[in-house]
Each structure stands twice: as C-alpha cells, then as structure tokens.
Amino acid sequence: MPKAITSYELSLNTRQPNQTLTNWLYAELRTAILHGRLSPGTRLPASRDFASQYRLSRGTVVNVFERLQAEGYISSQVGIGTWVNSLATVRGSINTQQTPPAYVRRVLSTYARPKAWVDLFSPQSVRPFHAGEPAIEEFPSRLWGSIAAKRTKKFASWLRTEDDGRGYRPLREAITHYLSISRGVHSTPDQIIVVSGVQQALDLLARVLLERDEPVWLEDPGYFGANIAFHSVGAKIIPVPVDDQGLDIDAGLRICAQAKGAYVTPAHQFPMGMTMSLERRMALLKWASSAGAFIIEDDYDSEFRFEGRRIPTLQGLDRNSNVILVGSFTKTLFPSLRIGYLVLPSSLVDCFLAYRYRTDFRNLSLDQMILSDFIEAGHLGRHLRRMRTLYSSRLAALLDGGRKYLSGLLKISDVRAGLYTVGLLQNGMSSRQAEKAAAAHGVEVIGLDRYSLKRPDPKAVLMGFAAFDEKSIRKGLIQLAAALERRNASRLSHR
After folding, report:
1. Do 158 and 362 contact (CB within 8 A), yes or no?
2. Which of 9, 98, 139, 435 could pair with 447 in a Cys bridge, judged by C-beta atoms 3.0 to 4.6 Å apart?
3. For residues 68, 70, 71 and 74, what is the CA-based torsion angle, rounded to 10 degrees?
4. How far is the C-alpha of 196 from the C-alpha of 368, rounded, in Å?
5. What sign for the dihedral angle of Cα 483, 484, 489, 495?
6. Does the domain formed by 115-135+382-493 have CATH 3.90.1150.10?
7. What would the pLDDT profile of 294-337 be if each residue is shown by its tens digit?
C-alpha cells in the first residue's frame, strides 16, 4: 500500500515569466520526484484538494497529473488515490554526483586539448586584433535577406529538390564558373562537393586519403585544423619548414620523400602570409606526380590580394589529378554561413561521397540556394571588389600605425593580402608572453608558437585587421604598444 501523504510545499515564486501554470506545476512535481523530495510510494492529495491548497484550477491539476501518469512518474487507482511510482526515480534520475561516470573519466584520461587552443584567450566580444574575422557590418544583409525571402516563397519547390550528395547543382555550377574565372581552376560541376566548411572537408579527406601511420607533409608553422584532422586518423605528421617562398620542398624530400601527401596554403600561407613561388609550386607538383601523392590546396582567403594580380591555383597548374582544392565562403561573406567546397579529381568523387554518407545523408540546404542566387546575380563579385578596397585601406592604416606606435617593439609584415597579418616581435618577448600581455591590455593577438609543429617559437603574433575601422586599429595599436613597452621596460631594468 502507498505511504501516507507527505507534505511537499510548492512556491509560486519559482514560476518563470511567461511560464503557464500548467507547465510550472508539471516542472515542479517532476523535479521533486526526480530529486527524491517526493519519494517512491508517496501519496499526492486528490486533485480537488491539491487545487484548493495552491489556488489553482482543478483542470490544471488534472492535466498535470494525467501527463505525469502517462510518462510513468505517478500512478492512480480509484479508491486508493495517486502516488509516486517506485520506478520513476530509476527511469529518470539526475546524476548530482561530482564524480563523472566511468565512460566520461575514460574519455577525459586520454583527451589532449589541441596545442592551438590551450589557454587561448577568448573574450566575450570581438576586439582588435581578432584574426580571421571579416567586416560583417559591411555585408549586404538586406540584399541577402531579400534573396532568402524570395526563396522561401517557393518553399515546396526547394523542399523537393533532389540531392545526390554533392550539393545543390546550380550552386556547384556557379562555383565552377567563379573558380574558373577568378582562380584558373579546371573543373566541372560534378567535381564540386559542397561541405559545411574547410574543417569538414579536411576531416573527410583525411579519412579517405590516409591510413594509420602513413606520413603526410604539413607546413611548419601551419594551420592547426589540418593537424587535427590528420592526427585524428592516426596519420604521421611530417612538419616541413616554410621560408619566404613558402613550403621548402627540398627539406620535405630530405625529411620524408615517401609521404603520401601534403597540405599547403600556397596563395597566402597560414599563418606567415607569404605566397609560394612558381618554382616551389612546380617542384611540389613534380614530387606529387612522381610519388603518386596527393596535394590538398587550401585556398582559404585568396580573394583578398591587394597588390598585383591574384596568383592562380596549384590545381590550375596540375595535369595529373594530384591536387584537391578546398575553399570556403566563411571569410569572404560571413562566418555563420557554413558553406565550403572541394574540387576533387573525377575518379575520387564516388569514393569521397561514400565516406560522407557515413555521417551525412543529405547535403542540400536553403543557404546553398540563397548563395547560388547571390553569386549568379553578380552580388558576390561586387561584394568582393568592395571588400578588397576596404581591407586594403585598413591594412594600410595598420602598417602606418605600426610604424608610428610600435617602432622597436614589433615589426608588421608588409605582405598585402588576406584578413590578417603577422607582427614580428623585437622586444625579446616570446609569442605567448606577447599574447598574454596584449590580452591584459584589452587587445587580442595570437602567438604564432600555437601553430608551430617542430619549429622553435617564431616570436611573432597574428593580427587581424579586416573587421576593424581605422579608429579601432589606431586605438588597438596604442594599447598593444603599452603592453609590449611594459615588458621591454622590465627587461631593460634588469640589465
């Protein structure tokens, strides 16, 4: 038989704004049961008495009791009453213990936070000189919204559109045309695969192209996302140094000529910023052809080159299907647009799609259709031309301000491309010391040692400029100078 009624006081003070009485009462009783404040076997007052006690309508109480009974938290029988089920706390118990369960402890015992993210400063808002952020306020959001509204009016048509795993075909056709004109890429729409971004592309490529312990070249310093993707499949990472001409092919051959492939950022090396020379490009292609190796070319921000003509892709020079091109619209348009692409050799497409289907059966989205319309109407080209002019002027402001405020402390690279640049420390600080000092002064820079694999600390920091107007850049430089001068003054005082 159920126990005698046990008093459990409810307080209307726990009710949240805009929360209905029904939802409030349900949440209160369910929580009390799960936490054991209403123990198994405890009898509840009759619905009429319950309603009177808490000044609720009887209909509200009946609805809540029926819901709790349907979910198995309570039981009811005519002539006996309503009581808390003995199984309720077992079925829905909440773990309030501080010690995580065994499977969590097992995962945590082997987890190593990627080097690039260890102790990384993460402010609540974007502040100078946050790297990689485009000028979001300059994006034609109303135009994008107008295109989206037109698309949503045709809801039934895009809902039924066929999806073969590659992505929305008109978008793939638009990307093919755009890459051919702007980047010299040779491809057809069937070679284009739409993905959620560069990182998804790298993760899938790592699983398709590499087996455990197979060696792969990575630029050093280089993009940590590629390191994470290849490391996750157990590949052997081969750090290859970069110099003012990009990846040092001769060094790669000396270290590991038998590598299965290479990951490179030839148009604008990440994070150092240089462009790979034509001689190095041809040497890399020659090695890949003779070794039967792949080259993943990450073309992440090549649209933003402010001097001279844009450099054609490696893929456009390739004649042996060794190069896989990866790109994204995240930095060219806005970060929350999670659309990237791959240009695969035709012979690899079906295999790649087979791997993709292991985690993602559908690849079609409304955003792909909106982006397709945006490109086809010429808006992408116009937006990029505007942004090149804007970013060029902001980089000029950074360079001019750097010479004025940071002389003897930090020398800013004169590479005129991308959304960020590199500052070479001249005050004796390590990369990480400069990063922490800047953060303490309200400025965000990233130490380049985070991107090094084997290379010693480059004693430099990554500085984004694209998202900040000239006034913010000047203010940020003054704050950064104060941070670096304090360290410099301390060092001089100890001589």
Report:
1. no
2. 435
3. 50
4. 10
5. positive
6. yes
7. 999 999 988 898 887 778 899 999 999 999 999 999 989 999 99
